[in-house]
User: Fold this.
Amino acid sequence: MSATDFVSTPEYDAFGPWILEVTDAAQVPRAFATYPIDFDSAHTVVKVPRNIARRDATPQMDLYDHLLIVGSDHLTVLGREDGRYSVLALGFGQIAALRDSVNLLDGRLTIYALDGSVVVLPYNGASRGMVGDILTTIRAEVRRSRPARAGSLSSRPSLPPMNLDDLGRKDAVFVTTTRELTREEPGLRLIAATGRSIVRPRGGAGVQFTHVLDPATLHALVVLAGDDEVQILTRRDAITRKGAPVVSMARLVLPLATVSSVESFEHPGYLGVVVLRITAGSAVIDVAVPQNSLTETVLRAL
Assistant:
């Protein structure tokens, strides 16, 4: 393409790795331009960019993969698909859980629906603050859409504030994140926390030997409870083998009113680890925790 052929567009000029707020029809990506949006009633509308470098983008491309609309009574996710777009509309009462995770710049916002469907929105970690604001708005609407359910967590005693090294220096981020969340939400209480541990595999001597050289780590976990939610802080992957430092962080938000059952079973690959299977409608979420730990006791009480 020559310089004389290059014709820029406002969409291209504003393109980068960031999630951007959309405030009027002129800012809607052309891939979704035909979808009707009521900006007057919507809480927020944002566009999620394609995972490409700015240098690889051109004005002729569709530069945004998703449009997220937090409306007055439902959440709508538009997804770009080969010249068309898909539409998923969820009433806030249909949302079973939300999970936000970041590994360096690899962000993923996951929305679990009561009918069992799961939507994953990849995003650049540079926009984590924007995603946090979106989560706050969605959570407020979910609370308004269904009655609060008093559960056993309301009587669970709070733990004292954690010191920075309580979970080990490698996991101080769990402490700082807990402090940040409880400062932003005064009703949020710390009710359980476990640090990382080395776990042994199931299997014979050969498997045991390979883990001596390359051990597996069950990562730290923190449980926070509000009046009508529980929040679980973990790494993106609960169990990892030795390698590069683990820098990921994940936050699972479970509205208590959606949880219908919690089953537990031994982890199929590791000793001393229990998998708690949390069911909300047809949505299923597994959380790995140390066996006979406070986190297991608290989460089984859901």
Remarks:
- The first strand starts at residue 20 and ends at 21.
- The mean pLDDT is 91.
